[in-house]
Structures are given as C-alpha cells and as structure tokens.
Amino acid sequence: MITTLTPLFESKSIFHEVNERKANKGFRCIYCGMDEVVHFGKTTQDRQRYKCKCCDKTFTETADTPLYHCRKSEKWIDFLSCLIDGMSLRDSAKEISVHYVTLFYWRHKILTALAQINAEELNGIVEVDETYFLESQKGAIPTHRSSRKRGGSAKKRGLSTEQICVLIARDREKNTFYKVIGRGKPTKDSLELHLGNRLGTDIVLCSDALRGYKLLAKNHHIQQYVKTGEKRVKGIYHIQNINSYHSRLKRWLNRFYGISTKYLEGYIALFNYLDQLRFDDSERSIKELAVDVLMNKVSDTNNDIRLRQVEYV
Ligand SMILES: [Zn+2]
C-alpha cells in the first residue's frame, strides 16, 4: 500500500509552484500567446482562473496540462507514484480506485509532457550510439498482456524491419538526447536532423564505425573518436557511458509489458527524467516530477492519445 500523497496535492502547493514558475518565464495566454495574462478569480474547484487582456479569453491553471478536464485529480499525484514504481495500470487502478482506462490516458499525458524535456545542446565529449527495440503494434488500451511475450525475439534474425532504432547521445555533463528514429539503422540525414543543431562547443564525437556518424562529424568539422572492434577502453574517449545507459534503459523498460512503439519515446522520456535526477521516490521528488510534468503543454485529448500515429523522419 502506498502512502497517499493526496494532501500534498490538496494543499495546492504543486500548482502554486507551477504558476509561479510560469509567471517567472512570462505567463502566456494559451490562446493567443501574448503575455498579458492576469488573475481572474477562482473556479468552483478552487482553481486559479486567468484572463488574457489581449484576446479577452479566460482559462484555468489546468488548461493545456495533463490535468485539464481531469476528474479525480486529487488521485493523480498518487498515480505518479504508481507509475514510477512501474505498477501496471490494473494494479494502479486497484491501488488508487480509478478505472484503468482512465489511468491509461493519465499515463500517456504524463509521458507526452515529459517527452518535451530533452537535451537541447551537447558539449565537449559526446558519446553517441543507437540501440534497438522490437517493433510493437500492440493496441492502445491494454485488454490483455502483449501477445508477444516480454523479451520475445524478432521473427527474423539480426536487424530487420521489426527493429526500431533509438538514438541516444550524451555528453560528460550527462546532458542526454534521446529519439526514436524508426526502422533500421540511422541514416546520415536523420543524424543531421536530430543531432546537427544540438552540437555545442569543443565537441569530440565518440561513436562506433557507422558511416552516418562519420559524415556528421565531417560536416560539422568536429573531431571523432571511432570505437573499433572490442578493444578495451583507453583514456577518456569511449562510448561506455552510452552503452551502460542503454542497458539501464532496457532493464527499466522491462517492467512495462510490450510497449507499443508509438508510445516508446514517452517511456524513454520518463526513464531519462528519473535517471538524470537520480530519482529517489521521496515526497519531494514526486512533487518535483509533478511540477515538471505540469510545466509542459499537453493539449492532446484522449482520442489523440489513443489514435496516435508516429511518422518517422
Ligand atoms: Zn490571449
């Protein structure tokens, strides 16, 4: 039984912090984007309401957050706890008495918010490597466990169309960029698209011998260290940090049965968040997670989530 964190939520301390952080950044109208937003009373649920002086529209503090139109929002913070503990939707449903289909949408709105937190710039020694996951077309809402058992193997050996490539790049300050880039090996164009504008200063790119990495380094006139064969780590240039990141990611993802490929990036985003912060499951950590989730714009409706299609570039 988890200790309920509802009081933390009821105290309004979370939205208080979210609103303050938004105010510091220049609180913008969700409709017209102007920053002439003023307080405009409270809702019957005691939520802050805002009014935009430019377009005259009003909105509440939950607008464009995963808590918009969320009934039972007092249970939401307890669900965060279930999520980071890796509990299934059904177990979470029993734990906090919210239907598991509702929790499915809660989960994916949280992941959609977190997927907006990603490294914008990598500096110094940057390790880059890709890792692969079996493609899964599993239906959106779980009705039974995945037909392909956890850790199942691809029908074809080696790299096939069933393997989805996830690109990870990480500098020694632990700034980490993650991206699900689609089937097969990364092309030079996709590496350029995703990494080209994130390469900061004094870069030494450490990678394996994949041609795309070589071309990326060449195009940006940066030094490259190429790992060849199984030779042992020598000095500071290696891709061991990224390889151990891949292992931690895969181990952590195992707790969720058969993740549908279209939701994979969201789960990686949650892992990345927890991994970076050395998350400790304390009340303070969960509050920080809640604030970070609510800071990101999520306007997807339940239908958007369920019918999501991913197109890879
Ligand atoms: Zn406006």
Summarize the structure.
The protein is of the alpha/beta class and 313 residues long.
CATH topology of the largest domain: Nucleotidyltransferase, domain 5
The percentage of residues in β strands lies in 15-25%
Residues in helix, %: 25-40%
Q: What is the name of the CATH class of the largest domain? A: Alpha Beta
CATH architectural name of the largest domain: 2-Layer Sandwich
Domain ISXO2-like transposase: 121-280
Pfam families: DDE_Tnp_IS1595
Organism: Paenibacillus uliginis N3/975
InterPro entries: Tnp_ISXO2-like (IPR024445), Transposase_27_IS1 (IPR051354)
Could you describe the 3D structure shown?
The longest helix has 15 residues, at 100-114. 36% of the residues lie in helices and 16% in strands. α4 crosses α5 (100-114) and α5 (100-114) crosses α10 (283-295). A hairpin with a 5-residue loop joins β1 (37-42) and β2 (48-52). It is built from 11 helices and 8 strands. It has helices at residues 6-10, 13-24, 76-84, 89-96, 100-114, 188-195, 211-219, 240-253, 264-277, 283-295, 302-306; strands spanning 37-42, 48-52, 58-60, 125-134, 163-171, 176-183, 204-207, 223-226. It has 2 domains: 6-116 and 293-306, no CATH class; 125-259, Nucleotidyltransferase, domain 5 (2-Layer Sandwich), CATH 3.30.420. The strands form 2 sheets. It has a 5-stranded mixed beta sheet with strand order 6-5-4-7-8, with helices on both faces. Mean pLDDT is 87; it is low at 144-150 and 156-160. The protein is α/β, with parallel strands linked by helices and 313 residues long. It binds zinc ion (ZN). Zinc ion is lined by residues 29, 31-32, 34, 52, 54-55, 57.
